[in-house]
């Protein structure tokens, strides 16, 4: 006689398991928002165990792992999510961000490309692709991405700031200043915009304007090492070497690993004939960055 084989119930696919997975996913989201990233990973993992086809759980676990700076495992999660749903631009965007954090800029650009292909209005993907391209010195292409964001949203302050940085890279200092002007008009508390505008002004020999921007940046953010670094460079250009050294001292105090501040302070000390102090600074700069040719 025939023996009927009992039906096999796939618990991971049963409605109750799926519902429980959804609840765990929601709990994980709450924990992630509260800063309990490790707890969120546990909840998302349980959700995946119950329902292995949950795109949201893989994507969310990837984001929680990014918060924990576990970028390799985050990329693995995003990759599975993409296999399950290759049409979601946000997952490609998230994986691109994780690759960016690992300094894998070329592959990050590839993910941002896909996100934009799936959603041509995805301005955040244009922005991060522009940042990744800038990291690979592809300045012209980065400029196009920031132009696109401004076309999509003329009030995007961050896009003007980032485009100003690229224009500085391209030595379009007047254009950079125009963009930083837009950035500070929209956000007068943006110390970095004042610092980077001061760099453009310095390159146009507008030293008084550059110093004014540095001083204002320091007023906004007294712990911003880059502001003191740039202020010191400007003062050195004006042959105020004592003032430059004071600024580089503060930059180093705020960021002891800033090899450029050591190198530039060494130059200023040499101009004041403090050769022993200059050599000490050059040695420190080389220790921090053996490729620092100025210090050599």
Q: What do you see in this structure?
A:
This protein has 296 residues and is mostly helical. The protein has helices at 15-34, 37-50, 55-67, 71-84, 89-101, 105-118, 123-135, 139-152, 157-169, 173-186, 191-203, 207-220, 225-237, 241-254, 259-271, 275-288. The longest helix has 20 residues, at 15-34. The protein is elongated.
Q: Any idea what the radius of gyration is?
A: 25 Å
The helicity comes to over 70%
Question: Which outline best applies?
Answer: elongated
- Classification by helices and strands: mainly alpha
Quick check: average pLDDT? 93
Q: Please tally the β strands and state the result.
A: 0
Order of helices and strands: HHHHHHHHHHHHHHHH
Low-confidence stretches: 1-12
Strand residue content: under 5%
Largest sheet: none
What is the tally of helical segments? 16
State the end-to-end CA separation: 91 Å
List its traits.
296 residues; mainly alpha; 16 helices; elongated; disordered N terminus
Sequence-ordered SSE layout with sheet pairings:
Blueprint: H1 15-34, H2 37-50, H3 55-67, H4 71-84, H5 89-101, H6 105-118, H7 123-135, H8 139-152, H9 157-169, H10 173-186, H11 191-203, H12 207-220, H13 225-237, H14 241-254, H15 259-271, H16 275-288
């Amino acid at each position: 006689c025939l023996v009927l084989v009992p039906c096999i119930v796939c618990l991971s696919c049963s409605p109750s398991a799926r519902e429980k997975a959804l609840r765990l996913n929601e709990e994980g989201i709450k924990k992630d928002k509260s800063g309990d990233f490790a707890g969120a990973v546990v909840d998302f993992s349980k959700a995946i165990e119950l329902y292995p086809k949950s795109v949201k759980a893989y994507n969310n676990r990837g984001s929680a792992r990014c918060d924990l700076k576990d970028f390799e495992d985050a990329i693995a999660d995003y990759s599975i999510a993409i296999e399950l749903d290759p049409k979601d631009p946000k997952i490609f965007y998230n994986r691109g961000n994780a690759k960016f954090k690992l300094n894998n800029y070329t592959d990050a650009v590839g993910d941002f490309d896909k996100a934009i292909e799936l959603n041509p209005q995805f301005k955040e993907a244009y922005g991060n692709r522009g940042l990744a391209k800038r990291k690979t010195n592809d300045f012209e292409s980065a400029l196009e991405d920031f132009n696109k964001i401004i076309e999509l949203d003329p009030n995007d302050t961050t896009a003007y700031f980032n485009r100003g940085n690229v224009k500085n890279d391209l030595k379009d200092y007047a254009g950079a200043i125009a963009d930083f002007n837009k950035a500070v008009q929209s956000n007068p508390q943006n110390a970095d915009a004042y610092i980077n505008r001061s760099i453009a002004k310095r390159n146009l020999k507008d030293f008084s304007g550059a110093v004014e921007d540095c001083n204002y940046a320091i007023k906004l953010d007294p712990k911003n090492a880059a502001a003191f670094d740039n202020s010191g460079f400007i003062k050195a250009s004006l042959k105020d070497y004592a003032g430059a050294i004071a600024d580089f001292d503060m930059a180093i105090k705020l960021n002891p690993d800033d090899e450029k501040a050591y190198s530039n302070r060494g130059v200023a000390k040499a101009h004041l004939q403090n050769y022993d102090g200059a050599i000490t600074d050059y040695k420190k700069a080389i220790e921090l960055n053996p490729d620092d040719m100025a210090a050599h």
